[in-house]
UniProtKB/TrEMBL annotation:
Keyword annotations: Transferase, Ubl conjugation pathway
Domain of life: Eukaryota
Domain (HECT) ranges: 438-510
EC code: 2.3.2.26
Gene: HECTD2
Catalytic activity, as annotated: S-ubiquitinyl-[E2 ubiquitin-conjugating enzyme]-L-cysteine + [acceptor protein]-L-lysine = [E2 ubiquitin-conjugating enzyme]-L-cysteine + N(6)-ubiquitinyl-[acceptor protein]-L-lysine
Protein's UniProt keywords contain Electron transport: no
SUPFAM superfamilies in alphabetical order: Hect, E3 ligase catalytic domain
The keyword Membrane appears for this protein: no
Name of the protein this chain belongs to: HECT-type E3 ubiquitin transferase
Length: 510
């Protein structure tokens, strides 16, 4: 090619280069707009020249990053495999936990809400009236406002536990009151609270019963305190226990009272005698009704089977015994002794009760109403004594007959009776002589014969003998007894008696 031909080519070369440079500059801003690729390669971090070499470096950095992430994932999945950086000196190792001390100093307020444990709010106890006047004012306000909240809160707090009962009803919450003569209980306040309870809505009454259940179910360790005795004393007066639906709770209360030690019973007895006549009688009637309805329930489905609650009646009878003892300590008694009689017992098998008592006595292995004779009416006692006497007569007569036969002697019908031959003119002396000689036959049936008089005793002669004997013994001229017009009773004569055996005769007749 000629020189002239090459010249244009050389001249065009700078132009082409300039055009290429302009195109490169126009593309470079677009590249700068792309986000940088993070890489661990030092050369890439320092910035390598763009071009083919730059593209290769960027791809290798991506591969390195992927491999590092894969290794990190494998290390996390294997807890025993630890990865340390390239550390040449042990001193260069980081501490196990850099911020241990800082974590110990962290306040709970500095933690996030997700980490914080939920804090339970403190229980808010209802405001409790401290005096009977305050309580009565709350009850009066209900009549106008119809809002039972204050009254409900009082019952909820008071019957929640034994300490709350003491705090509400003790005359002085800080005093101990450990004497038998003073229970330390504000009796008027207790009466006011119980009188108002029956007129409250059902939810309040249920609240009281739930509180009593929780108190009775609490485990007790060690002996009872006087505050515990006061709580039992207060709960026993609850009029809700007149309802059969509460008998299960009432039975457990009675059971816990009966299991107290004798010293605690001693305290309760003396506190019972301080009750008013009305409240004392209510306690007795409530216990008698509890026993009667357990024996003869109007609705048997309301009660557990008798086999599962056989301890109900013994527990109630023992608490009745405490009340009977308290009644006998007061002169005059708070209530007549006849108020303890349970007429329902006249309709049970009294002889079975009597035989159980004869076999086991007053032991706790077997219960018998004969262990608590103060609840048995005069009518029932008469039936027991009469049938027992008849059984003993038959038993002794049978034994005498067996003895005669075993000795091969001829039986005699007279051996089955207590035969007495007396003179009308010496009625007392002859009767005394006959009874003295025939002591072994005293439990046999009596047959009387008057000397010099023909007749067969079919019961008439025995009645006549009793009548004549009683008239003579109790005659004022005989000198054994003196009649008091004020009391309409006979009492032992003040004159000195020379023959006390005659009083023994009267005792045998009785």
């Amino acid at each position: 090619m000629s020189e002239a031909g090459r010249a244009p080519s050389r001249a065009a070369s700078p132009a082409v280069a300039a055009a290429a440079s302009e195109e490169k500059k126009s593309k470079e801003p677009e590249r700068e707009k792309l986000p940088p690729i993070a890489t661990a390669n030092a050369g890439a971090a320092a910035g390598l020249d763009r071009g083919a070499k730059g593209h290769i470096s960027t791809f290798s950095s991506i591969v390195t990053t992927v491999n590092q992430k894969k290794e990190a994932a494998e290390n996390r999945s294997s807890p025993t495999h630890l990865v340390f950086p390239n550390i040449k000196n042990v001193r260069d190792l980081p501490p196990i936990c850099l911020d241990v001390r800082q974590k110990q100093r962290l306040s709970i307020d500095a933690l996030s809400s997700e980490i914080k444990a939920p804090v339970l709010p403190e229980p808010v106890l209802p405001t409790q009236p401290k005096t009977m006047k305050d309580f009565q004012e709350h009850v009066e306000k209900v009549k106008s406002s119809g809002d039972w909240k204050a009254v409900h809160d009082f019952y909820l707090t008071t019957f929640d536990s034994f300490p709350e009962l003491n705090a509400a009803f003790k005359k002085d919450a800080t005093a101990s009151f450990n004497t038998i003569e003073d229970s330390g209980i504000n009796a008027k306040f207790v009466n006011a609270v119980y009188d108002a309870l029956l007129n409250t809505p059902q939810d309040i009454q249920k609240t009281v019963l739930k509180g009593i259940i929780n108190s009775l179910l609490r485990e007790w360790k060690g002996p009872r305190t006087k505050d515990d005795l006061r709580a039992y004393f207060i709960l026993l007066q609850n009029p809700q226990f007149n309802n059969t639906s509460t008998y299960v709770i009432y039975a457990h209360l009675l059971r816990q009272i009966t299991t107290l030690v004798e010293a605690d019973h001693h305290f309760l007895i003396h506190w019972f005698k301080k009750l008013s006549q009305k409240r004392f009688k209510q306690l007795v009637e409530r216990l008698l009704q509890f026993i009667s309805l357990r024996l003869f329930p109007a609705k048997p489905e309301e009660f557990p089977p008798i086999t599962k609650c056989s301890w109900w009646i013994p527990s109630a009878s023992k608490v009745l015994a405490l009340l009977n003892t308290a009644n006998n300590l007061v002169h005059p008694p708070l209530i007549p002794y006849t108020d303890f009689y349970n007429s329902t017992l006249d309709h049970i098998d009294l002889m079975e009760e009597y035989h159980t008592w004869q076999s086991f006595g007053n032991s706790h292995s077997r219960f018998s109403f004969c262990q608590y004779p103060f609840v048995i009416s005069i009518t029932a006692k008469k039936i027991i004594i009469q049938r027992d006497s008849e059984q003993q007569m038959i038993s002794i007569a049978r034994q005498s007959l067996v003895d005669k036969v075993s000795r091969r002697q001829r039986p005699d019908m007279n051996m089955l009776f207590l035969n007495m031959k007396v003179r009308r003119t010496h009625l007392v002396s002859d009767s005394l002589d006959e009874l003295t000689r025939k002591t072994a036959d005293l439990k046999k049936k009596l047959k009387v014969t008057f000397v010099g008089e023909a007749g067969l005793d079919m019961g008439g002669l025995t009645k006549e003998w009793f009548l004549l004997l009683i008239r003579q013994i109790f005659h004022p001229d005989y000198g054994m007894f003196t009649y008091h017009k004020d009391s309409h009773c006979h009492w032992f004569s003040s004159f000195k008696c020379d023959n006390y055996s005659e009083f023994r005769l009267v005792g045998i007749y009785a």
